[in-house]
Amino acid sequence: MATFGVMTNMILYLVNEYHMEMTTASNILFLWTAANNFMPVLCAAIADSYLGKFYIIGLGSIVYVMGMVLLWSTALIAQARPPPCDQSSDSCSPPTFLQSMVLCSSLGLIAVGAGGIRASSMAFGADQLENEEGKENSGVGESYFSWYYTLYLIAILMGNTCVVYVQDNMGWKVGFAFPSVLTMFGTVSFFLGSPFYVQVQTNTSLVTGLFQVLVASYRNRQFKLPSDATTNITYYHKNGLAPGFPSSKLRFLNKACIVRDPQKDLTPDGRARDPWSLCTIVQVEELKALLRVIPIWSSGMIMFVDLSQNSFPVLQATETNRRITSGFMIPAASLQTITIISTILWVGLKDSVFLPLASRVTGRPVNISTTRRMGIGIFLSCIAMMVTAAVESMRRGRAIKDGNSSEHHLISVLWLVPQYCLSGLSDGFNEITQNEFYYSELPRSMSSIASNLSGLGFAVGSLLASFVMNMVDSISKARGRQSWITSDINKGRYDCYYLVLAGLSMANTVYYLVCRRAYGPLKAERRLKEHEDEL
């Protein structure tokens, strides 16, 4: 709640209080968003391999509080930010190096802290729902991820309304104090519940084991694999596990688990003498599972480029009529709550209304697979960019038609509702399903990494968004022309910018279909087929 409440309005804080240009402020936010989504993956690897989920969440909470307090201090201390603009000369002083360092340090601490919290919170919650045998109770799975994400979106909704309203109406000092207090309260609450948490033992060799498979496969690259994995070949497996065979996918990795000479490769107690030359079948299959999902994961990056466009819609909303009554005007940043509400409605009504209704109409059970839902989400993101471009073209055209492209010629804010709804549905179909897909397809030992792969995609997507924006800005302003991306959106061409994003999204839709076809059946589908074959 605190993170997104601060992030939503940060573009206005950077432009108005730190006097940054639109491209500079947007690049900072793109990089901050990337860090916010990359750090959970790094912290998840540390959690799964070394510290455990509880300690990562705890340390992240403490660092997060430090970052929020430092950001709050930039609003409290006048010397921490540039002086107000000189109205008489219409000049604004840029931030000094020290002021920029304090600001970036606060954003960096927030990113690291949020990474620790988000790295394991979802998987840590799933751990609490396991029984004594380590098996999932009913309800863990699609319903758990749906409702976890629903509560997550409700927190974002509260941040985009309550926190943004406080910032717009009570100033930045109170606006940053509010989320700072919330983070302190959340940190204390987390540690108070520590005696009751279920803490799953970490796998200290997870990350190292993945690299060991790569090295062992390369070292054994000269070994020729038989066409059939069940041929008279000894495969190395962990003591206590029943002997098995590696899968036929990505067969070159199978070289890492073949025992060529038991006396040389194994110790008397059955362990590998050199784990960088001989790995277990489990290690090989863990790496295979991760590599297999990478193409589908990469298809989500372009969609996340679309979802990273949070700064421009805020400026677009400031150029609309947002007044509901004579005494109340919707904050521009709060319009993103429409996106969140759309996602919440889809997640909340999918299982209780939409799928039962579809089953009744078709006369048979209807269930949308994870990969199909992700594909629908990617396609909807393309439609959302097209609608955004059309609405922006209409808004800008009306402003210019009225005679002065730099004046405010307001259209109703309701024109922006469709693009926000489509973005929300795209997010609901794709992002939440990505978590479910990775968690179900990857081994349980990689649960924290699985629950943060979508965040890594968002991080890379944010970097791509920054790259695309800078490329469009450089190309559009070549030869002295007006850039498409300016602080005055009436002079810019954001409609053309969104058409570029729509084109990328359409190409990404085709790319996803190719990746999905190459992936083959899902794990549940493979198990069902194996069960049918046994019968």
Considering the chains and any ligands shown, give keywords for the structure.
66% helix; two-stranded antiparallel sheet; two-stranded parallel sheet; single chain; globular; 535 residues; 2% strand; mainly alpha; Growth Hormone, Chain: A
Topology overview:
Layout: H1 2-17, H2 22-51, H3 53-76, H4 97-127, H5 142-192, H6 206-219, E1 234-235, E2 258-259, H7 262-265, H8 281-307, H9 311-318, E3 320-321, E4 323-325, E5 328-329, H10 337-362, H11 370-401, E6 411-412, H12 417-441, H13 447-450, H14 453-476, H15 494-519, H16 523-534
Helix pairs in contact: 1-2, 1-5, 2-3, 2-4, 2-14, 3-4, 3-5, 5-10, 5-12, 6-8, 8-11, 8-12, 8-14, 8-15, 10-12, 11-12, 11-15
Subcellular location: Membrane
InterPro entries: MFS_trans_sf, POT_fam
Membrane topology: Multi-pass membrane protein
